Automatic annotation (TrEMBL):
One of its GO terms (cellular component) is extracellular region. Removal of H(2)O(2), oxidation of toxic reductants, biosynthesis and degradation of lignin, suberization, auxin catabolism, response to environmental stresses such as wounding, pathogen attack and oxidative stress. Residues 29-320 form the Plant heme peroxidase family profile domain. The lineage of its organism: Eukaryota, Viridiplantae, Streptophyta, Embryophyta, Tracheophyta. InterPro entries: Haem_peroxidase, Haem_peroxidase_sf, Peroxidase_pln, Peroxidases_AS, Peroxidases_heam-ligand_BS, Secretory_peroxidase. It comes from Panicum virgatum. Coiled coil: none annotated. Its cofactor is Ca(2+); heme b. It catalyses: 2 a phenolic donor + H2O2 = 2 a phenolic radical donor + 2 H2O. The keyword Metal-binding applies. This is Peroxidase.
Length: 320
């Protein structure tokens, strides 16, 4: 069950992620209850289907969150991650990285289309589903998700490779990667907490274990990981490990930040938030229990509040 600090953390994460919209300065800003008149059943329909999916398969909570983040971080929250290959473009975003949740997203989309054909954007459906799956996984009350996003019509394989932060990024690479999106250091710390649940393949971690152990890794943690992750080339396959140690991988937990303090971050990019002078500054933005301070950024506003949408994006408008 999520603690109150974890709830604050997650609310902030959604504020940050939702701010990466595709709307340009000349377009209408996102707003709560955008479909109140055109499709009043929209959010409840998404909630009902999403809740059923996550309760039936608890691993889908993290899957929806990851899908939403990848969609937003590549071209803005425009559902371009959902576009299928065509004869004119075989190399779309979904070909670049293995993500779960595509079939589930289609199921939710079909349910919404059955009550309001052609009204609700796929981009908003993804946002609602991420919010609702996190609510189920975190065990807390729902919250408003601004909507009115437009669906993108462009999806390129190479955009994923050029935009998604790597799990082996060092601190300065992470800061630069997020800064390119108009995201601050506070935003980086907040959004990294999405690794508080879910799992990862050993292939993303083996570089920290073999041939020598990453010196920033806790000794007992590396020993535990080696019992699951075989050395490359030994025929042991590519098993999965929990993103967050000592917690249920399907439940949101603020243990993520405490683990970083004790050298138990799974990825290089996780542990970098604590190590080194810059990393210590990042850690001080959260207490050792993982409580993100106050829900406000360095300028006193919520993370993401200072950013407008990305201009110049080719999009398709839905009806309000």
């Amino acid at each position: 069950m999520a603690t109150s600090s974890c709830k604050t953390m997650l609310l902030m994460a959604f504020v940050v992620t939702a701010a990466l919209s595709t709307a340009s300065l000349a377009q209408s800003p996102l707003q709560n209850n955008f479909y109140g008149s055109s499709c009043p059943q929209a959010e409840e329909t998404v909630r009902s289907v999403t809740e059923g999916i996550v309760r039936n398969d608890p691993t889908m909570g993290a899957a929806f969150m990851r899908l939403f983040f990848h969609d937003c971080f590549v071209r803005g929250c425009d559902a371009s991650i959902l576009l299928d290959p065509t004869s004119n473009n075989a190399q779309v975003e979904k070909k670049a990285i293995a993500l779960r949740g595509y079939d589930a997203a289609n199921k939710i989309k079909a349910a919404v289309e059955s009550v309001c054909p052609g009204v609700v954007s796929c981009a908003d459906i993804l946002a609602f589903a991420a919010r609702d799956s996190a609510v189920v996984s975190g065990g807390f009350a729902s919250f408003a998700m601004p909507s009115g996003r437009r669906d993108g019509v462009v999806s390129n394989f190479i955009d994923v490779l050029q935009n998604i932060p790597s799990p082996i990024f060092k601190l300065q690479e992470l800061i630069s990667n997020f800064a390119a999106k108009g995201l601050s250091v506070d935003d980086l710390v907040t959004l990294s907490a999405a690794h508080s649940f879910g799992q990862a393949h050993c292939s993303f971690v083996n570089g920290r274990l073999y041939p020598t152990v990453d010196p920033t890794m806790n000794n007992t943690y590396d020993a535990a990981l080696k019992t699951v992750c075989p050395a490359p080339g030994t025929g042991g396959g590519d098993p999965v490990v929990n993103n967050n140690r000592v917690t249920d991988p399907n439940v949101l937990s603020n243990q993520y930040y405490s683990n970083l303090v004790t050298g138990q971050g799974l990825f290089v990019s996780d542990q970098q938030l604590h190590g080194g002078q810059g990393g210590q500054q990042l850690r001080r933005r959260c207490d050792v229990d993982g409580a993100v301070r106050g829900g406000a950024g360095e300028d006193g506003r919520h993370p993401g509040a200072h950013r407008d949408g990305r201009p110049g994006q080719e999009v398709r408008q839905r009806r309000q």
